[in-house]
Description:
The chain has 203 residues and is of the alpha/beta class. The protein contains six helices and nine strands, in the order αβββαβαβαβββαβα. It has one domain: Oxidized Rhodanese, domain 1, CATH 3.40.250. Strands 3-9-8-4-5 form a five-stranded parallel sheet, sandwiched between helices. A two-stranded antiparallel ribbon has the order 1-2. A hairpin with a 5-residue loop joins strand 6 (139-140) and strand 7.
Amino acid sequence: MKLLFVLIASVLVLYAGRYDKVKITPEISYMYVYHKGKAVKIHRIQDTKNKLTGEYAKTYRPGKDIQPIEMKNGVQTIGEVELLHFLKEKVNKKQGILVDLRSKEYYKKESIPGAVNIPFKVKNDHSKMEKIIKVFGAKRRADGTLDTKDARTVAFYCHGLWCGKSAEFIKAFVELGYPPEKILYYRGGFQMWKILGFTTVTN
């Protein structure tokens, strides 16, 4: 029995060690997130010589400004570690929603595990925005105000530090009455997720 325990423990250590070369934090090598009903293991690429290629390897975007960290409407800006905790503690338990604001084409090709797609252009369609707010748990009262006691916490992201889509969408969301304290802004966006070598999924 003791030998069996040692063998199982050894296998678990070896298995865990596969993701220990490049960790998320000193304590976390990987975590599971549900994406469309399936568990996805999020970890960082273990190849220390891996280099980012493709569109998200670009460092310059003509006509694009770097987004500030602090939003003026009281919305909290988060980084990758906070986003991972949000996925584990809120999205996995269906108490939170991660929204990818990029186009359907980008989302289908690759996204952060656990994210749903709401293309940025929806911002200009008032009826669709009202439907989204309702799906997120808020209810429009007869007097036009928004009942948000059951509203879920929502995190938004777009292309990256240079992309203003999240900030604009969040501004519109707040103007419709959604409480800023239930909104998170992942400023790093998909580019920073890729730069750090995190797991992605196709949709």
